[in-house]
Amino acid sequence: MEYKVEAHRIMSISLGKIYNSRVQRGGIKLHKNLLVSLVLRSARQVYLSDYYAGVCLNAQHIEAKEWELMDADREKLIPASERHVGAEDGRASRLQEKDGDSLDPSDVAVTSPVSPAISETQCGSSDCETDADAAVTEGDSRQPPKDHACSHRKRSAEETGVSETPVKRTKVTPNAIVANNEIEEGEEMDTSNVSNLITIFGSGFSGLLSKDSAKSESETDDSDSGSGQICCEQMLKNLNPWTTAIVAF
Amino acid sequence: AAKNGAGCSNSCLFQRHGFNFHSHPNSADVISTVEFSQSGEFLATGDKGGRVVIFQREPQGEYNVYSTFQSHDPEFDYLKSLEIEEKINKIRWLPQLHSALFLLTTNDKTIKLWKVSERDKQPEGYNLKDEEGRVKDISKITSLQVPVLRPMDLLVEASPRRVFSNAHAYHINSISINSDCETYLSADDLRINLWNLSITDRSFNIVDLKPDNMEDLTEVITVAEFHPHHCHLLAFSSSTGTTRLCDMRSRALCDQHAKLFEEAVDPASRSFFSELISSVSDVKFSHSGRYLLTRDYLSAKVWDLNMEKKPVETYQVHDYLRSKLCTLYESDCIFDKFECAWNGTDSVIMTGAYNNFFRMFDRASRRDVTLEASREVCKRRAVLRPRRVCIGRKRRESDICVDSLDFRKKVLHTAWHPTDNIIAIAARNNLYIFQDRHSPSGHHGVHRIEQETAPQLEDTPPQ
C-alpha cells in the first residue's frame, strides 16, 4: 500500500504544479507541463493498478483477459463502450465534495466509464459483490469518445497490462475498510477528487492548457476544454484536503 | 601542482577570477547564459533582467568588463494576456571579421542581432549645430568649415542591427549560427526556424513537431544546434531523451530525421520519474564535428555520429541523486537544465551540478574531478581543491554528504574557451573564470596583475 500513498502524493504534487504554472510569469511552460503530466500519468497508473491489485484480487485474471481484449480492439470498443455503460445501478455516485459525513459504504465512485467488461470485473471479489456493478456515467456527457481515443494514442508508447484504460477510475469501497477508518474515508474522497481532476487531464493534454490560448491553436474540442476548465474550477473550489496541497506549492 | 584529477593534458589546477556583480543578489542578476566568442577573446553573459555583459580578455590574461547593454525588455502580449520574460535564454557570437563584434541574443520570443563597436573619435566642427548639438541660427553662419574627427575617450556602443520577431508561438530555447555565417536557426518547444541574418521579416520552418491535436503531444524540442562544419546538418534533442540529426539537403521539412540517437532504457530502473530524467537538457557538437555531447538530468553522454544505438561514453554526473528524485521533483530541482561543454581539443567534457559544484571528465583516462565555484572556497588565485560527495559517512574532512548539498546553488551554465583551458562558470549571479595555471597558451603564467577588488558592473570602464 505504500506505493499507493507514494503515487497519491506524487499526483497531488503534480496537480499543484500544474495549477501554479498557470499563474507563473512568462506564461505556461510547455516543456515543464508536459513532463509533469507524464509523471502524473505514471503515478496514476501505479495508483490505479495498485488499487485494483489490492481490492479485487479475484478478478485479476478476468481483468487480464479483458485488458487484452481492450488492447486489441481499443479503437473500436471505445465509442461503443461509452454508450453501453449506462447507469446500471443507482447506488453508484461520484463523490464531489468532502462533506465530512460517513460515506455510504457501498458507494462506487466511478469517474468515467470505460467498458462494460471492466466494470463487471470490478465486482468479482466477494467484498465487492454487494457493490454496484454499475459505473456511473456522469462522465459520459462530459467526455466525448474522442478523448478516450486520444488518451489511448498518447499512452500507446507505454503499455502495461493493467493500465490500458487511462480514463477509467473505478473504485470500490468495501464495507469493512470504510467502516473502520474516517481517515480512510478522507482518502477515498481525496482520491475521487484526484480522479475528477485526473479526468480533466486524462481527457488529453489540452485539458491542462485550456486556459492558455497560446496552446489552443489546434484545440478542436472546445466543449471538452471548456468543461474541463469548469470541472477543474469546481474541483479547485471544493477541495478541502487539496487546498493544503495546492497552497503548499 | 602535479595532482591530476580531471586529467587535462597539463593540469587540473585552476585559479579564480571572481566577478561579483552585486553584493545584494537580485533575481534579475541571475546569469542565464554564458558564451565565449569564437576566438575566445570575448565572453558574454546574459541575465534574467535582460541585460548582456561582455568581457574582454586583457593581454595579461584576465577578463574585464567591456560593454554592458540592455538587450531585451519585458513585454506583454495583449492578445494572449501573457507576459513575455526579458530573460536572455541564449547568446551566440558571429565570427569576428573586423573591429566590430556581432552577437545574437534571444529571450522567449524575440531574437536580436547586436553590433558592439568602439568609438574613439568623434566629429567636431559642424556647420549647422553647435557643440551641444543645438541647431545654429542659419543667419548667423558666416563661413563654412569641414568637420574633423578628434580623439575622444573610448566608448563601446551596442546597437541592435536586426530584430527577428513574431516567428515563435512557443518559448525559444536555442539559437545556433550556421557554419556558413549567413543563416542561423532558432528553436522553440515545437518548431525550428531557419533565418538569414540579414532578413528579419521571414524565416523558414525546418522542423515542426506540433501534432494536429495538441492532446497527442508527447515530446518537445529542448535544444537545437548546427553542425560546426557541415552547413546542412543540425541536431536537436527532445524531452523524450532522443537526439535527432537532420539533413537539410534531403528535404525542406526535417521532420524525418537522418539519424536518431537513443539509448534503450533499462526497464528495471523505471520509476515515476524515468521519463523526466531522460529529457535532454543540452546538446553540443564536439569541435571536430565527430561527436555529440548530450546532458540529461543525471548523466552526460558522448555519442559518435556514426552510431545511433547507444552512446560511446556515459558519465554519471550525480548518480547519488537517483534515490532522491521525489524530493527533487517536489522542489522543482528535477526540472533544472544543466548545460555541458567540450574543451578545445574534445578531450575533456564539463558540466555543472548542485552545491555550486561542476565536474570535468577526461575522456581518455576516464578520470574525473569535482570542483566548487564559491566565494567562500576560492580565494583569488588560489588553486581549487577537488571535492567529493559521499553517500554514507564522510571519509575525509573535505567530503560533503549528499544530504548537506545545497540545491539552491546550481551551476547550470558553463562555457569553455574555444582553444585554451579557461572556463567560465555561472553560479546564480556570480561569474567565475578559472584559468589553468599551466596552460601552454602562454597568455597567463606567473606574471598576472593582482586585482584588489572585484570590478563592479556599472563602475568599471573598459581598461
TrEMBL record, chain A:
Compositionally biased tracts (Polar residues): 112-127
InterPro entries in UniProt: IER
Sequence ranges of Basic and acidic residues compositional bias: 80-101, 139-150
Renumbered residue ranges of the record's region Disordered: 80-168
One matching Pfam family: IER
Highest rank taxon of the organism: Eukaryota
Family designation: Belongs to the IER family.
Protein name (Swiss-Prot/TrEMBL): Immediate early response 5
Organism: Electrophorus electricus
From TrEMBL, chain B:
Pfam families assigned: WD40 (PF00400)
GO molecular function, one term: protein phosphatase regulator activity
SMART domains (UniProt xref): WD40
Gene3D superfamilies: YVTN repeat-like/Quinoprotein amine dehydrogenase
Protein family according to the UniProt entry: Belongs to the phosphatase 2A regulatory subunit B family.
Name the UniProt record assigns to this protein: Serine/threonine-protein phosphatase 2A 55 kDa regulatory subunit B
Keyword rRNA processing: no
Keyword match Repeat: yes
